[in-house]
Specification:
Blueprint: E1 2-7, H1 18-28, E2 30-35, H2 44-53, E3 57-68, E4 71-78, H3 85-111, H4 118-124, H5 131-141, H6 147-155, H7 170-179, E5 183-186, H8 198-204, E6 208-212, H9 218-230, E7 234-237, H10 259-282
Parallel strand pairs: 1-2, 2-3, 5-6, 6-7
Antiparallel strand pairs: 3-4, 4-5
Helix pairs in contact: 1-2, 4-5, 5-6
Length: 283
């Protein structure tokens, strides 16, 4: 049985609908799946319901994007209570910031002589609008050949059409996930996140690190395994699947993730629930 704890749908910047994601998971033999869209949980209930029909265990999750200096740090949240109103209000603010950011990028691109209509960008997003949708629109106009070139030439951090996002710090993302009853995990370390950030994030409530990841070399995987052991952090992993129509890191379910990872993640979740229940009873 394959395990994939890092996937995306059309609710954020993925190209696979919830239905398509579950169908593909069934096809390739993924038995445990986490849907972790950027700044939204809009696909979670649908994927969970469809997963039940296909005998796929679905873990509710989210991926929060944050900024640090000249880079980004992403924080995954597993087993979040995504129905909490305050959490949905927070995520809505983040998504509105994404939409405003994309619209401003389109304005900058127009100023650079690239005729791009924001409505076209919105047309790529069946969920929240983000930079990948701007990139796809740039490809369609012929301004660039690939999504990667769009980021490198125009909308990457050093590009002339780059626009800062609404600032959320990694510590704030960790604390938000913890408040929602979730398990905060540092996503794809080595890409944006530096090792020296980990102690401060642990102080904020970080509980895990994504060790098994397509971009990690064997040496990197061993390095992050040692860090996880050093700091007593949970280990997770997944493909960061965004769909077959874009340059996903790897095909769904293709990243090796040992069952022990899921067992420990579920055990931590159960312990947190017992702790919460005990706290509520003592009041």
């Amino acid at each position: 049985m394959r395990i994939d704890l890092h996937t995306h749908t059309t609710a954020s910047d993925g190209t696979a609908s919830p239905e398509e994601l579950v169908a593909l998971a069934t096809q390739v033999g993924v038995g445990i799946l986490a849907v972790a869209d950027h700044d939204t949980t809009d696909s979670v209930d649908t994927v969970m319901a469809l997963g039940t029909q296909e005998d796929i265990e679905v873990i509710p999750a989210v991926e929060l994007n944050t900024d640090v200096e000249d880079s980004e740090v992403h924080v995954l949240g597993y087993f979040i209570d995504h129905h909490q109103p305050w959490l949905q209000e927070f995520l809505t603010v983040l998504r509105n910031g994404r939409a405003n950011r994309a619209a401003t990028m389109v304005e900058k691109l127009n100023g650079l002589g690239i005729k791009l209509d924001y409505a076209k960008v919105q047309g790529y997003a069946r969920g929240s609008v983000g930079r990948p949708h701007v990139a796809r629109a740039l490809v369609e106009t012929g301004a660039v050949r690939t999504v990667e070139e769009a980021f490198e030439k125009y909308i990457g951090r050093q590009g002339p059409a780059y626009v800062e996002r609404m600032r959320v710090t990694p510590a704030e993302a960790v604390q938000t996930i913890a408040r929602a009853g979730g398990i905060p995990v540092l996503a794809h370390p080595g890409w944006g996140a530096r090792d020296d950030m980990i102690p401060d994030l642990i102080a904020a409530g970080l509980e895990g690190i994504e060790v098994y990841y397509p971009d990690h070399t064997p040496a990197m995987t061993m390095h992050y395994m040692r860090l996880a052991e050093q700091y007593a952090l949970l280990m997770t992993g997944g493909t960061d699947f965004h769909g077959t129509a874009v340059a996903s890191k790897a095909p769904l379910g293709s990243q090796y993730v040992p069952m022990e990872v899921v067992e420990k993640l579920k055990a931590r979740h159960a312990a947190k629930r017992r702790e919460k229940t005990g706290t509520e009873k003592s009041r």
